[in-house]
């Protein structure tokens, strides 16, 4: 029969492990300028109302790169950033619809399934350079248009949002 001391140590150790696991799942606070706000149905917030990300936080997520011909550029562009599904997972988003809003007031609705179905990225680099606001930055939701014929359509072009500032998960 375990002693009271060994039972207390076991309880304390399991409490520490649960605390550490919970802490590992927490979203760190943004230290730099916030460039993306995710609100609505998010399970992890680092502000009272939302999960916010600065560039360094997005850079810490697994990165994806691809080149794609877009309808807005004459040549293929190399895009880099985390997968949209990884950004949503970091905030523990759980909705079916994403309402994207841009700095220039453009708004679009994206089915959350697109994040699982396609390797959509939240690009912060184009051709190896950070994207300035004047040329679609700081963030650009972009689909891998060249990977599937179905993505080369107005439906998916309209779901792309440059100058992205926020996502509302519904």
Any key phrases for this structure?
170 residues, alpha+beta, Sulfite Oxidase, Chain A, domain 2, five-stranded mixed β-sheet, four-stranded antiparallel β-sheet, 5 helices, 27% helix, disordered N terminus
Topology readout:
Layout: H1 4-25, E1 34-40, E2 51-54, H2 55-60, E3 63-68, E4 77-82, H3 84-90, E5 97-102, E6 107-111, H4 113-117, E7 121-123, E8 125-126, E9 129-130, E10 140-142, H5 154-159, E11 161-162, E12 164-169
Parallel strand pairs: 1-12
Antiparallel strand pairs: 1-2, 3-4, 4-8, 5-6, 5-12, 7-10, 8-9, 10-11
Structure description:
By secondary structure, this protein is α+β, with helices and mostly antiparallel strands. The protein has one domain: Oxidoreductase, molybdopterin-binding domain (Sulfite Oxidase, Chain A, domain 2, Alpha-Beta Complex). The protein has five helices and twelve strands. It has helices at residues 4-25, 55-60, 84-90, 113-117, 154-159; strands spanning 34-40, 51-54, 63-68, 77-82, 97-102, 107-111, 121-123, 125-126, 129-130, 140-142, 161-162, 164-169. Strands 2-1-12-5-6 form a five-stranded mixed beta sheet. It is globular.
């Amino acid at each position: 029969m375990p002693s009271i001391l060994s039972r207390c140590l076991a309880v304390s150790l399991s409490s520490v492990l649960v605390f550490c696991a919970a802490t590992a799942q927490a979203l760190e606070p943004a230290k730099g300028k916030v460039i993306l706000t995710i609100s609505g149905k998010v399970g992890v917030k680092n502000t009272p109302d939302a999960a916010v990300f600065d560039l360094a936080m997005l850079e810490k997520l697994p990165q994806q790169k691809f080149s794609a011909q877009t309808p807005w550029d004459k040549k293929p562009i190399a895009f880099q950033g985390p997968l949209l599904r990884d950004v949503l997972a970091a905030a523990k988003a759980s909705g079916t619809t994403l309402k994207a809003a841009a700095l220039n007031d453009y708004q679009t609705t994206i089915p959350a399934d697109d994040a699982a179905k396609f390797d959509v990225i939240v690009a912060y680099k184009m051709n190896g350079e950070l994207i300035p606001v004047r040329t679609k930055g700081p963030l650009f939701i972009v689909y891998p248009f060249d990977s599937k014929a179905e993505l080369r359509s107005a439906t998916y072009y309209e779901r792309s949002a440059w100058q992205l500032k926020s996502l509302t998960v519904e």
